[in-house]
Design goal:
Length: about 800
């Protein structure tokens, strides 16, 4: 073995390649590795063996003690990886602490996401171990960029089990042309990972880590920024953001707030790291990765403390064509597709999509709850697979577990549960209608066509009815403008600043009280209003307290909370925010500020420059932008330098643009993101070839109010569910709301299909019909957990199908 490595490491041959050769040579003579169920563990053991044997070899460099050469770095690289992998193995074996287990479970991402983020953590830990080893050996600090070549970076990525680069050739599969993939991959054929799940949030401006690589702003206590220390997020929250009162907004309903949270869950999902084997983030006030606690203090006693904070999970490198410095910087993962594609209804992985479907019904529908229905027999979301679940329970009633949906956050509050339920019902309503209209459609076609319609409705409601109200019509026309067709040069991936700052503007619009209204849109006599913290993770309140209607009426029949610079965040969020099984009250404002620093977002002024807005250089200039002199003075006093202001805070206190709910900075950042999501989406509802002109004319009739009419017991609605109106004067009957006529989706059997007949159904899989080079093609695929054996595509030729249908083999888990 050692001889092999000695033989292979020679001029012109990299360690990366040498290790491959040694691995291959060893595998040929050791069948135990060939048959090993965990190939990576065997690879790891092999590398350990190689390094042990080779430790007795003569040094390759005589002056290694004084110079860092490539061979010694690679030796350290391998051993650093071993240490990192060992550390993360111990971390995985450690059972989660009781304080974190419940909340983590309720935001648990899919297994595919966990594997990729774990690989990225091993990658990052390897870099840190390597730098520490070099520091110890050579008595000086170096950056990873100075040490490593691209080949070294690729080796670490491969050892860490980060997914290999995705080649555009995989996008040539024809079934990816008719419907969007569940993971978002291959939406852009030349850049398959743009907008896909489990890829990094993109950077519109470079990250500003204190060490240039991964240490967040505020990590090194005492570090000066523009000559001053950054204020504690807790101090900023206490002195600037907390408010005991919220005024009502007489223009918009609370549905504007609820939809903002809902559609955010269709675009971004940033995961939090767990504590490690060595440190529990709930029991430390030290900055030790992955813990970045928020310093707090008691104004009366002067006692110092901290609020727990877990750093965001990293992402694997996806672009090996960028600079090494950029590739080695810590980037945060977006666990879901960036596209507005209703992924929170359908999921982001084949595994979750399969769990959510009613595959036994052969009807293209989604699975529903088999235990509970509402008083009119309408379905609820199905329960999660692992029971009993961690959701809160009625202490005096029948158990109601957590609901399951395309996004694991669906149980976070009652309005989210309600909107998820409405869209589940809408999918099944449309699927049933399409089955009646097109009796020859199989279940896969019904499911995909319905999913396509639901995705289009999410896009229409968001872009036509929601975004202009948020950023104002003028900013909408400036930053987004009319649709000009799909642009394959536009990257639709969610930006870090959008996910971490700009789209969190909505936290300042949350009301401390959740209203529940009766049929006359008055306070419900049986189900009173609830404090915000009584609505978290409580699906039992939907099932046992009147269904979705009381909460839904509260969303459309209650005015949203107004936002002003001196009344930003309700105390329910800054002083009484509770996470399940976390004994300490949390502060959402502090968490948002710390998250921005965790992600190393540049400051408020840098983002103003990015948007072409004037940098704020003086207190008077800041007062002009904020329009509240007292708030501007307090912020300037706390931060001491205007360039240090956190972007989330700066954007939040800006005076709102006319007809909007954001200031100029957030209007710009949200507008740019929405334009990218629209123009960079090959399957956008208005894009050429996605829907027929007749279908588009029907889709534009769709509205949230109509969907509420079709899927609840509510019979009177405002024409626009986002606008607040007085009942009954500003409401209309559901009979007056325009409907989508699904006849536009009627499809006659083609002559080819008549001649060749319907392709045969297969067990554990299905097909969709498409056309290629003027011929009818049946494209088969297997359900999650099964593999296709045989021809994936069969062609209708000469009145018969070219091949027998394939089979789906394997064990379904």
């Amino acid at each position: 073995m050692c001889f092999l490595l000695y033989l292979y490491i020679r001029p012109g041959l990299t360690v990366h390649t040498a290790l491959r050769y040694v691995f291959i040579a060893h595998v040929k003579v050791d069948s135990s590795i060939v048959n090993c169920p965990q190939k990576m563990a065997c690879y790891f053991n092999l590398i350990s063996l190689v390094m042990l044997l080779c430790s007795i070899l003569p040094r390759f460099s005589t002056d290694e003690a004084s110079h860092i050469n490539s061979r010694s770095v690679r030796e350290l690289l391998i051993s650093s990886y071993q240490d990192a992998a060992s550390l993360h193995t111990r971390k995985r074996q450690r059972s989660p602490s009781s304080s974190t287990h419940v909340f983590t479970f309720l935001r648990q991402p899919d297994p595919e996401t966990l594997e990729i983020s774990r690989a990225a953590e091993v990658f990052q830990t390897t870099l840190q171990v390597l730098k520490n080893s070099v520091r110890q050996r050579y008595k000086r600090d170096v950056t990873a960029t100075e040490l490593l070549s691209w080949e070294d970076v690729e080796l670490i990525a491969e050892l860490s089990q980060c997914p290999p680069p995705t080649h555009p050739a995989i996008c040539l599969q024809s079934h990816l042309n008719k419907y969007r993939s569940i993971s978002g991959i291959c939406n852009n054929r030349q850049n398959p990972l743009w907008g896909a799940a489990n890829t990094p949030l993109v950077r519109w401006l470079p990250a500003e880590y204190e060490d240039g690589e991964r240490e967040p702003k505020g990590w090194n206590r005492g570090r000066l920024h523009n000559g001053f220390q950054l204020p504690s997020p807790w101090e900023v929250s206490k002195k600037i953001l907390r408010s005991s009162v919220k005024r009502p907004d007489d223009v918009y309903s609370h549905m504007l707030v609820d939809w903002g949270q809902y559609i955010d869950h269709d675009i971004t999902f940033t995961l939090q790291s767990k504590g490690s084997a060595e440190v529990d983030c709930f029991n430390t006030c030290q900055n030790v990765h992955p813990c970045f606690p928020i310093e707090t203090g008691d104004a009366i006693t002067g006692a110092q403390g901290c609020m727990p904070f877990h750093r965001s999970r990293p992402a694997c490198i996806v672009n090996f064509g960028s600079s090494i410095r950029q590739a080695l910087q810590l980037q945060q993962i977006n666990a879901i597709t960036s596209f507005i594609d209703a992924s929170l209804v359908y999921g982001n992985t084949p595994r979750r999509a399969g769990f959510l479907r009613d595959l036994s019904g052969l009807n293209g529908k989604l699975a529903v709850n088999d235990q509970f229905r509402d008083p009119k027999g309408r379905p609820y979301l199905p329960f999660v697979a692992s029971l009993p679940s961690a959701c809160n329970q009625n202490p005096h009633g029948e158990r109601v577990d957590c609901f399951n949906a395309g996004d694991t956050r669906c149980n976070e509050d009652l309005p989210l549960i309600v909107l998820h339920t409405v869209w589940l019902r809408e999918h099944n309503r449309i699927a049933e209608a399409l089955k009646r209209i097109n009796g020859h459609w199989n279940s896969e076609t019904i499911y995909q066509e319905t999913r396509k319609i639901i995705g289009a409705l999410h896009q229409i409601i968001t872009m036509r009815d929601y975004v202009p109200k948020i950023i104002g019509q003028e900013a909408f026309e400036h930053y987004i403008g009319p649709y000009g067709g799909y642009d394959p040069t536009t990257d639709p991936s969610a930006a870090n600043v959008f996910a971490t700052a700009a789209f969190r503007f909505g936290h300042a619009t949350i009301s401390p009280i959740l209203s529940r209204l009766n049929e006359s849109f008055q306070k419900h006599e049986h189900f009173p209003h609830l404090r915000l913290d009584d609505t978290f993770f409580s699906p039992w309140r939907i099932v046992k307290q009147g269904g979705i209607e009381p909460t839904l009426r509260g969303s459309i029949g209650t005015a949203a909370s107004a936002v002003s610079a001196n009344m930003l965040m309700t105390e329910e969020l800054t002083e009484r925010l509770l996470l399940l099984n976390v004994s300490q009250h949390m502060d959402l404002a502090s968490l948002n500020l710390q998250r921005g620093r965790d992600h190393a977002l540049p400051g408020y002024n840098d983002w103003r420059s990015f948007c072409g807005l004037k940098r704020i250089k003086t207190l008077d200039g800041f007062k002009e932008v904020v329009r509240d002199n007292r708030v501007a003075e307090k912020i300037a006093q706390l931060y001491k330098h205007l360039d240090n202001i956190d972007v989330w805070l700066g954007g939040l206190v800006e005076n709102m643009l006319p007809g909007s709910r954001t200031g100029p900075l957030f209007a710009c950042l949200i507008g740019k993101q929405m334009k990218a999501l629209r123009d960079g989406d090959r399957f956008w509802w208005e894009a050429e070839g996605i829907f027929s002109q007749q279908q588009k004319a029907e889709l534009i009739k769709g509205s949230l109010s109509r969907i509420i009419c079709d899927n609840s017991d509510i019979r009177e609605v405002p024409p626009d569910s986002f606008r607040f109106g007085n009942y009954p004067y500003d409401y209309i009957s559901c009979d007056q709301m325009p409907s989508i006529h699904l006849e536009a989706w009627r499809e006659e059997k083609s002559q080819d299909l008549e001649q060749c007949g319907t392709p045969r159904k297969i067990k554990n899989g299905d097909f969709i019909l498409s056309s290629a080079y003027g011929k009818l093609v049946a494209l088969y695929s297997c359900y999650h957990g099964f593999k296709l054996k045989g021809a994936a595509a069969i062609v209708c030729e000469g009145c018969r199908w070219s091949d027998p249908p394939p089979q789906c083999k394997g064990n379904h888990h």
